[in-house]
Amino acid sequence: MIVREKIQSFESLTLIKEAAFSKNTLGRKIREEEDCIRTCYMLDRDRIIQSKSFRRLKHKTQVYIKTFGDHYRTRLTHTLEVSQVARNIGVGIGLNENLIEAIALGHDLGHVAFAHNGEEVLNEYLKGGFRHNEQSVRVVTRLENDGRGLNLTEEVINGILNHSGLGTTKDIITLEGIVVKFSDKMAYLNHDIDDSIRAGLLSEEQLPKDIVEVLGDNSTLRLDTLIKDFVKTSNDNINNGIKEVGLSKEINAAMIELREFMFKNIYLGDTLKVERNKAKFILEQLIKYFEENPEEMPEIYLTIAKKESLQRAVADYIAGMSDDYCLLLFNKIFVPKAIID
C-alpha cells in the first residue's frame, strides 16, 4: 500500500462521516495523476505555500497601522493564525485537517495592499466591483504559475471563495470550509484588538462590557471561548444528527457585536482616516499610471489586457502588489530624483 492510501485509510478511521474525505474529492479542473505520498488536499496546501502570492503576504498590511515594530500582524501572520484556529477546531470536531489548512492558507491570497483601503479603491475602479475572496480564487486559477494557476481541488477553491463575511454558509460545500469562514473572524478580531492596543489606538476598557462578560477580558480568553464553544456546539449538532457546525447563539451574537465595534472604531473609524487616505491616494495614482502606460506591466498582465480588458489587467496587477512594492513603485514613478551634474 502506498503512503497516500495509508493516509486515506487513516482518515476513514479518525474522521466523522460528515467530513470531506480526500478519496472522495470532486477533483481538479485539469485531471492529474495522484501523488504517491500526499493526498489531494495536502498537495493543494503545498502548492499554496510555494506560490509567489503566499510569499507576498508577508509585506501586506493586516490593519493599516504602519508596522515599525516586529510584533504587529501582517497578512501572512494573520493567515497562519487562521490556520491554527481552524485546525484546532477541525481536530476537535473530527474534520479533515489537511483540507482546512489548504483553505485557510489560501483564503487571503487576493487581498490588496493597505488592507481594506486597497479593496475599496479597486472596488470603485473595477467594473462589476472587486472582492478579495473572488480575487483569491482568480489568483489560484488564473494568475499563479505564469497564468496556468495552481489547479487546486474544487473543495479548496469553494472554501476560499466563500470564506468572506458572516452571512450564509449555504454555498460552502464542506464543513471544513465553514470552519475556516468562522476561524477567519475569530482570528482577526482577537489579533486586531491586540495590535490596536499595542499601537495605543484602543484599550481593553473601551471594549463593550457585555461582550467582555460573554467572551472574556483579554484576547487569549476570548479566543479560547470562541474555539471551545464552536467545537462543543458543532459536536452537539453532529451527535444529534444535524450536519451543521458553528457557534452557539449567545457566543455568535457577541462575536458579531465585537466585529461591528471593530469596524466602527478601528477598520473604518476616524483614528486611521488620514493614513487610509494616503494609502488610497497611492493606489489611485498607480492605477491611473498603468492605465496610461500598460506596456510597463509584466507580460502576463498584457495578455490579460488583450484577452479580457485593460481594466481587469491593471486591477490584477495592483491587487498582487505588497505595501512595500506599492510604495517603491510610487516613489520610482512620481517622486523627483536628485540631479547630479
From TrEMBL:
<dbReference type="Pfam" id="PF13286">
    <property type="entry name" value="HD_assoc"/>
</dbReference>
<keyword id="KW-0378">Hydrolase</keyword>
<protein>
    <submittedName>
        <fullName>Deoxyguanosinetriphosphate triphosphohydrolase</fullName>
    </submittedName>
</protein>
<feature type="domain" description="HD">
    <location>
        <begin position="75"/>
        <end position="189"/>
    </location>
</feature>
<dbReference type="Pfam" id="PF01966">
    <property type="entry name" value="HD"/>
</dbReference>
<dbReference type="InterPro" id="IPR003607">
    <property type="entry name" value="HD/PDEase_dom"/>
</dbReference>
<dbReference type="InterPro" id="IPR051094">
    <property type="entry name" value="Diverse_Catalytic_Enzymes"/>
</dbReference>
<dbReference type="InterPro" id="IPR026875">
    <property type="entry name" value="PHydrolase_assoc_dom"/>
</dbReference>
<dbReference type="InterPro" id="IPR006674">
    <property type="entry name" value="HD_domain"/>
</dbReference>
